[in-house]
Amino acid sequence: MKRPLVLSLAFAAAALLLGWFLLPQAPLRWLPAVDVQLSIAPDPEGSLDQTHRSGLQALVQDLLEGQRGAAVTRTETTHDLRHRTEVPIYHLELNPRRRGNDLVMDFRWRKGSGPWREVRREPAPPREALERFRRGLPFWVRPNSRDLLLPGDPADAWTLIELNGRTVGDPARPDFQQLAGALAQRHPDCATAWWTLGRAALVDLIIRANRMPESRETAFRALERCLDLSPTHAAAQAYLAQGYTDLGEPSRGLAVLARALSRQPRVTILLQQVAYSARCAGLLDLARRAIDRRRETVPIPLGIENALLYSGAWNDFEAQLLAEVEAQGWRAPSQRFYWGYVTLLRGDRTLAARRFPPPPGQGWSPYRFGRLGRLFLDLCEDRHDSARLLLGDLLKDHQALRAPDGEYTLKLAEAAALLGERELALDLAGLAATHGFGCVAWYERSPLLAPLRSAPRYQDLLRNLRQRQADLERRFPPEAFGL
C-alpha cells in the first residue's frame, strides 16, 4: 500500500476516534433538530403507581431535553403527533414496570407516521435501566458522564422518581423538601436530586408566607449545583430564571435564558420561560417571538400567555385559552379567572360575571386565583363591601410573601382601582414595579388602571419603568435568544 494512502487512512481513523471522544461534549445546537412526542402506555399489571409513572416520564423528558436538546411534548395519547417534513418527529411510548427494586424500561417508537418498533429491556437497577433506555433510542442522545439523573442506590433512586412525579406541596408528601435535601446530601453528584431540592425550595419561597433568606439561599444553591453537574438541564435553567424574575431581578433571569437558548434553541420549557420573563420585563416583542417559536415547535396549547394580553392581542389570548380548555378541560382556577378578566377588559361586566365562577360542580379554589376570581366577580356585581374584605385578605396574605409576584400585585392594584381606592391602587402599582413587573405597555394600556394615569406619582412611575425597560431592551434584543 502506498505511503500517502496509508497516511490518509491513519488520519481518517484518528479523526473518527477524536470525533468519538468529543461527541459527548459537542454543543447541543450543532445536532440535527429532533421533536419528540412522549407518552406512557397503560399499565394493566399495576406494578407502578401513577406518581412513579409520572416521575419516570419527567426523567425521560429531562434526559431528552438536557442531553439531546430535543423539543419534547408530553402527551396522553399518540393523537397529537404532527406530520411535517423539515424536522424529524418521533413518538416515544414508555412502558415501564417495576420488579422489586429493578426497573424494566421497555418502550416503542415510530418516526412520523411510520410503523411502530418495539424495544425490550431486561430488569435492571433504575440508573442502569435509564442508561440502557438511552442507548436504545432511535436517535443519538449524549451519554451521562456522572450520576446526573439517578443515584446508584436503587431505593434512593425510586424515592427520587416518586418525588419527581409529585407536585410540591402534595399533602401526601409533606416531607418533600426534607427528603429531597437528604437525597442531595447523600448523592452530591446526582443532578436530579439537586434539581428536586431546588424546585421544592423555590416554589416554597414563592408561594408561602414568611420564608426567611435561607429559603432563597437553599433554592438558588441547589439549582446552581444541578447546573454545575448538568449545564443543559432545561428545567433547572427555567426555574432559576423564574426565581430571578419573581424576586425582581429580571436581568439575571434573562441572562440565564439567553445562555440556555444559545445551546438548546427548541426546548419548550425554555421558550415558555422566555415568554414569561420577557413579558414581566416589558420586552413584549421578545415574548411574542418566543411564543411563536414555541407554537411552531409544539402547536398544541401549553398554558396561558399573558404577553398576548399586554400587547393588545385579546382575541388571540382568548382563543388560545379556550383551545387549551377544549383539549384538557378546566384544569386550573387561573383559566376561569383569565376568561372573565379578558371579558372585563373589553368592558362587559355582565358577561364577565358569568365567566369568573368555577364550572358547575366545582367550588371556588382557596388558592390565589380562585380568591381573585371571587373578588373580581364581586366587583362586576357591585358588591363593594364584600370586595373590600376579600381584597384586604388577599393583601395580607400576598404582602407576607418573601417573593411576591409583581404581575399578581398589579392585578390587586387593578381591583383597588375598580373599587375606587385610588391611593391604595397607586401604592400597589408601585409595589408591582418594585416586585419586578415592569411591562410599561400594560401600565399604559390596562383599562382597569385608567383612573390612576393622571396622578403625578403614576406618571413618575411610568418614567422610571420606561428607563428600566429601555435598558433591558438594549441588553437583551431578540437576537440574543436566537429569536
- Radius of gyration, in Å, reads 24 Å
Report the total helices.
Answer: 21
Helix content: 55-70%
Please give the CATH architecture of the domain at 306-481. Answer: Alpha Horseshoe
Structure summary, number of beta strands:
5
Low-confidence stretches: 12-24
Largest sheet: 5 strands, mixed
Distance between the termini: 53 Å
Q: Which topology of the domain at 306-481 does CATH recognise?
A: Serine Threonine Protein Phosphatase 5, Tetratricopeptide repeat
Structural category is alpha/beta
Dominant shape = globular
**What is the string of SSEs from the N terminus onward?**
HEHEEEEHHHHHHHHHHHHHHHHHHH
Strand content: 5-15%
CATH class designation of the domain at 306-481: Mainly Alpha
Strand order within the widest sheet? 2-1-3-4-5
Output mean pLDDT: 88
